[in-house]
Amino acid sequence: MQTFAYQTPSNVADASRAAAASEAKIVAGGQSLLASMKLGLAAPESLVSLSGIAELKGITVSGGVVKIGAMTTHAEVAASKEVAAAIPALADLAGKIGDRQVRNRGTIGGSLANNDPAACYPAAALGLGATIHTNTRQIAADDFFKGLYETALAEGELITAVSFPVPSRAAWQKFFQPASRFSIVGVFVSQGPQGVRVAVTGAAACVFRATALEQALAASWSAAAVQGLKVSADDLSSDLHGSAEYRAALIPVLAARAVAAS
C-alpha cells in the first residue's frame, strides 16, 4: 500500500471539508475502497473516515417511512425488528449481502455512494423510490444513480441518511455469483406510494428500472403477468458469469419469483 493520511472527523461539517480536499477519499465501511487500494486501482493521499460520527448511525420508523443513517451497517439493517416489520424485503436484502464480515463492516451509505453495478442496496433504493439525504440536499433515487460507479454526489457531499417509503408489498430476488455474493442479476419489486416499481442490479453498468415489467405488474400484480415478458439484451452486460442474453432472460424470471414471494 502507498502512504496516506488518515482523518477521523467527529461531525459531518468537518468530514465534508476534509473530503473536498484534492485526492481525498471517504471511508464508510471500506469494503470496496480498501480492496481497490490493495490492487493499486486507487491511491488517495488522504482517507476521511466517517466511523466516529454518531449522527450518521441509527434506524427510525415513523409516518410510513423507514429512515436509516448512512453509517448503519448491513448487519444492523438485517437484524432490525423495526425494518423487518415495516419493509421485510429490505431486511432480507441486507441479510444476503456478501458474507458476515462484509455485513458487519459495510454500510448503506457507502454502498449507495460507491454504486457498484452489481450491488444490492441501489436496487432497494430505486425499487422503493427512496430519498437519499446528504449534508446539503435531498436526492430522489431516480435522480441519484448516474452510471458505472457514478452518482449525483458532488465533491465534498456526504450521504447522511436514506429514507424508504413503506410499501404495501415488496420482495427481493438475487441470483448471485457464489464467490463474491454480488448479483449476476438482482430484482427488487414493490407496490406502494409511488406505484409499482421494479429495479434491476447486476445486469448492466448501472442499476435501472424495468419499465415494461412495471407496466405489466401495474395491470396485474401476479407472477404470471411478467413470466412471459421478453427483456432486451441491448445495453446489458456480458462477462464470464453470464452473457447479456442470459441476464435478459433472468430478469423476468426473478421478477416473477419476487412477486410470488411478496
Give me a quick take on this structure.
With 262 residues, the protein is of the alpha+beta class.
Structure explained in plain terms:
This protein has 262 residues and is an alpha+beta fold. Helices cover 35% and strands 25% of the residues. It is built from twelve helices and 14 strands. The protein has helices at 12-19, 33-38, 74-79, 81-86, 88-95, 100-105, 108-114, 121-128, 141-144, 211-219, 223-227, 244-261; strands at residues 5-7, 24-27, 46-49, 59-62, 65-69, 131-134, 138-140, 145-147, 150-151, 159-165, 169-176, 183-192, 195-201, 208-209. A hairpin with a 6-residue loop joins β11 and β12. The longest helix is centred in the C-terminal third of the chain and has 18 residues, at 244-261. The model has no long low-confidence stretch (mean pLDDT 94).
Helix fraction?
25-40%
Which regions contain 5 or more consecutive residues with pLDDT less than 50?
none
Structural class: alpha+beta
Strand order of the largest sheet: 4-5-10-6-7
Termini Cα gap: 46 Å
Q: Mean pLDDT across all residues, rounded? A: 94
Percentage of residues in strands: 25-35%
Work out the helix count: 12
Count every beta strand, where a strand is a DSSP E run of 2 or more residues.
14
Rg over CA atoms: 18 Å
